[in-house]
Amino acid sequence: MSQPHPVADAEIAGRKTVAVLGSTGSIGVNTLEVARQLTDRIRVSGLSAHRNLDLLVQQTREFNPDWIVATNESCAKKYRWPKLPGTQLLIGHDQLDQLVTDVQTQVVVAAIVGTAGLRSTLAALQAGKTVALANKETLVAAGPLVMDLAARSDATILPVDSEHNAVFQCMQSGRRSEVHRVCLTASGGPFRNFSREQMQLVTAEQALAHPTWDMGQKISIDSATMMNKALEIIEARWLFDLSPDQIEVVVHPQSIVHSLVEFVDGSVIAQMSPPDMKLPIQHALTWPDRVTGPARRMMFQDAMSLEFRPPDIGRFPAIALGLQVARQAGTAGAVLNAANEAAVAAFLDRKIGFCDIVRACQDVLQQHAFEPQPTIEQILEMDRWAREETGKWILA
Ligand SMILES: NC(=O)c1ccc[n+]([C@@H]2O[C@H](COP(=O)([O-])OP(=O)(O)OC[C@H]3O[C@@H](n4cnc5c(N)ncnc54)[C@H](OP(=O)(O)O)[C@@H]3O)[C@@H](O)[C@H]2O)c1
Questions:
Q1: Which of 313, 329, 345 is the last residue of a domain?
Q2: Does residue 129 share a domain with residue 83?
Q3: How far apart are CA 64 and CA 45, in angstroms?
């Protein structure tokens, strides 16, 4: 029989204190749904929001956190804050540091979207916290620095991204040295059966309507272009210390198998569950325990088919770009990530077409002055440069 886990037992007695950065987003709201069901295990100690302050106030009234941070200063200063007894309000992005490094905070859920989530994730890692990482852009932009910081600070990163959480679970079936390759599954998004000509005409409304997942705007567009899979290839490369040649993408339209790990003997281990982010979030929050929670469950009474097919790189060039950037490393990830964020925003503003998103990323990547071992300052500078260049590309 296995020995009780001493850390887990101590945490159950006192409940884990969890700060949710980006609590008003899709991952944030799902995290609070998990916390609502697991009050015996989780105490929400902090929340952060950018613009949706009505929802932040509503969440504060329900969860009574010690701190809340309103990161968008101009929105926060105009807002008529009600009395929130027992909760301290902090205004400004810099204040996230105080929330994540607070001695009370044990777990930080990094659910801010984009590079905006980088700084607070680094601060949490530096403070040796457990980070339940949804914000994949952090690893895409600064993977080696993030993993090195986590190792030096004795911090733990637990993946929330469903594919990486699945890989993390599958990897527990063997030794790390026995992993042959990792297959990241992709639903293929709403346009998996569209021709190149049809894709030229795609609108933002069509791109936002994901067939299997309900997500925030940016990741929904990333899923439609399959840039999400490109970012996930890079994320997996750093998170699991894989060679890019060990990472493959397989299209699986049902989104039931969240990823697969093949071991050297040929055994393939898959993690299956309905498409519901509450499961990987809960897994990260309760790890190393498994408990009953609010996520949807498989219904094997209903007939179902699971399909797997290789991605069409011709129609979805983002995947090749992801592998290329995973091989290049250095500043390439920061450039791809920033160019993509800027291009997605321009597409949502109806300034460029759907297929222009990946084209802009390809062009900006080609122009950049590659630095193989950047510091965090160089990464931030490259992020700024790539956004500016993408802006020029959009106007050209
Ligand atoms: N949604 C999913 O199913 C899913 C799955 C896997 C991974 N992820 C990753 O998880 C992260 C969050 O995704 P999401 O879908 O939850 O995004 P989302 O719904 O757009 O929510 C983003 C959150 O970040 C906040 N935010 C936005 N801009 C900010 C800024 N400049 N500074 C600080 N906070 C800011 C938002 O605040 P306001 O709403 O108050 O403005 C909101 O709380 C992304 O990195 C995404 O790739 C998401």
A1: 329
A2: yes
A3: 8
Q: Does pLDDT of 11 surpass 60? A: no
Residue 85 CA, ligand 1 centroid: distance in Å: 27
Domain extent at residue 244:
164-329
List the Cα angle 242/243/245 in 5-degree steps.
125
- Pick the last residue of a domain from 312, 329, 346: 329
| Ligand 1, atom 44: closest residue by C-alpha | 113
- Alpha-carbon distances of 23 from 6, 108, 116, 160, rounded to whole Å: 30, 11, 14, 14
Shortest-distance Cα residue to atom 20 of ligand 1: 216
| Ligand 1 site-directed mutation target among 21, 23, 26, 223, most atoms within 8 Å of CB | 26
CATH number at residue 91: 3.40.50.720
Instruction: Kindly report, residue by residue over 92-109, the tens digit of the pLDDT.
Output: 999 999 999 999 999 999
Mean of pLDDT values over 309-335: 97
Could you tell me if 152 and 177 lie in one domain?
no
Question: How many A from CA of 93 to the centre of ligand 1?
Answer: 14
Q: Would residue 345 count as lying in a domain?
A: no
pTM of the model: 0.95
Closest C-alpha to 35, from 214, 286, 287, 298? 286
Q: Which atom of ligand 1 is nearest to the CA of 162?
A: 6
Residues lining ligand 1, Cβ inside 6 A: 22-28, 49-52, 71, 93, 111-113, 116, 134-137, 161, 213, 215-219, 277
356 in a structural domain: no
